[in-house]
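Problem 12. The chain below contains 424 residues. Write out its predicted structure in token notation.
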Amino acid sequence: MDRNVIYFNVPVFPIAVERVVDLRLRGRPVVVALPGAERAVITAASGEALRAGIRKGMPVFRARKLCHDTIVLPPNPTLYERASHALINLLDRFSPVLEPAGFGHAYLEMTGTTRLFGTAKDAAARVADEVASRLRLPATVGVASNKLVSHVAADVIRTAGVQEVCPGDEASFLAPLPVRRLPGVGPVTLEQLLEFNIRQIRELAAVPLPQLVTVFGAEGVHLHERALGIDPTPVYPPTAAPALLEEEALGEDSNDCDLLSAHLFQLIERGARRLRSTHSSAGKIMLHIRYADYREAVQQSHLAPPTSHESRLFAAAQLLLMKVLTRRTRVRHLAVRFGDLGPDTEQLLLFPDLRDPVCGIQPALSRTIDRLRQRFGEHAIQWARVAFAGVKSPDAASACSPAPIREPFLTQTGAAAGFWCHAA
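Solution.
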């Protein structure tokens, strides 16, 4: 029995969702970027913006120069998450095994479902029609014998529709495409391939396997298989633990360690507050920075035991900051991801040392600050580390108000108002 895998893709998912909510955004150049700074980096751009020369990762001020009519929207992750849940719930009706691959992306294992939904191509068309009619989201859908080829098939479609690659045609389908189309070929690998004048997938497939292994090591085997359209990876149901993300684009690029440390503390404080609001703790913390020349660096650390206290989280994050700052180039963007989330069940000490900020004063102080801000507002109290460094918080009205509840994605009330609450 031939295997059938569908890759479902909603191009530029955040903007597609925003256009469902606000019809006036359709047909206009739209980008998504953090509010409050012209140097904020664009995280999503519509097709109209791309045709105007705007690209993902470009600062907002440069995008405005290229296209004066550009509409800049702040990220609304609460809305995107609800829309993604609605999409996944709809797709789950068509496949016994579904693997979400990010907002607006999912793999569907369709092997053995012919009696229920017809051929894989017919099922893909039916899924796309159902999503378009119920959620009003356009989609490109790839159908192939494995995840890799179905992913590429969906990516090469310029407009909404279905692209099928028949079993046995995987290598010939991939051959004329550029190597950057292969999933798993990142900037570093792509640069190495271009140095060897390997620009198309057919050229990569023609390189003998021993030579690829000599240059890329074990990764050379995977490159060879991908170039031939071979991917035995199964479709995995979602099992990954959730994570929280806090990020900020600096108003002005800087390599001042004190200022970066203050911004980092602000991110940590916001994340710790979100953890406490859900009675969760983080067992891993990851720091991601983007320099002014758009090069990036990442460091991560495991926390034992997991915690939701600013003191421990910041101590680990500050060590990561020292490790990640290996260049003299100014920093433009900071992001902190809290992973390995679990219930906040930190073991209490029978005789705690109250002079220790981790087990003594800090937890009670954090809870008191949370209550003060909940009662008197976000800017009622702030840490001196942040205030004296001149770090400003986003506007409280825009940062803390939950997204309005609109159809067709939103079928439940009670949006998570604390999701975008930024501490002062």
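Discussion. The two ends are 59 Å apart (CA to CA). Students who got a different answer should revisit the alignment rule from Section 12.3.
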